[in-house]
Amino acid sequence: MSANNVLLDVKNLKVDLPTEHGMLHAVRGIDFQVSRGEMLCLVGESGCGKSMTSLALMGLLPRKAQCSADHLLFDGADLNSMSEKQLMQLRGKRMAMIFQEPMTSLNPAYTLGNQLCEAMLQQPRVTRAEARDRALYLLHRTGISNAEDRLRQYPHQLSGGLRQRVMIAMSLMCSPDLIIADEPTTALDVTIQAQILRMIRELQQEFGTAVIFITHDLGVVSRIADRVVVMYAGQVVETSDVAQLFAQPQHPYTRGLLNCIPVRGKTLPGSRLQAIPGVVPSLIGEVRGCAFRNRCALADSACESDPPMVQQGSAAASHLARCHKLGVPVSAMEVAA
Amino acid sequence: MTTATIPQQAPLSDIALELCALSKVYPLKRGLFQPPGELKAVNDVSLRLYRGETLGLVGESGCGKSTLAKMLLGLLAPTSGNVLINGQEVDPTHRREHARHIQPIFQDPYSSLNPRKTVAEIVGLPLKLHGIGSAAERARQVKDILDLVGMPERTHAQYPNQLSGGQRQRVAIARALILRPDILICDEPTSALDVSVQAQILNLLLDLKAEFGLTYLFISHDLGVVEHLVDRVAVMNKGSIVELQSREQLFADPQHPYTRMLLASALTPEPGLGIPALAAAA
Question: Does A191 touch chain B (CB under 8 A)?
Answer without folding.
Answer: yes
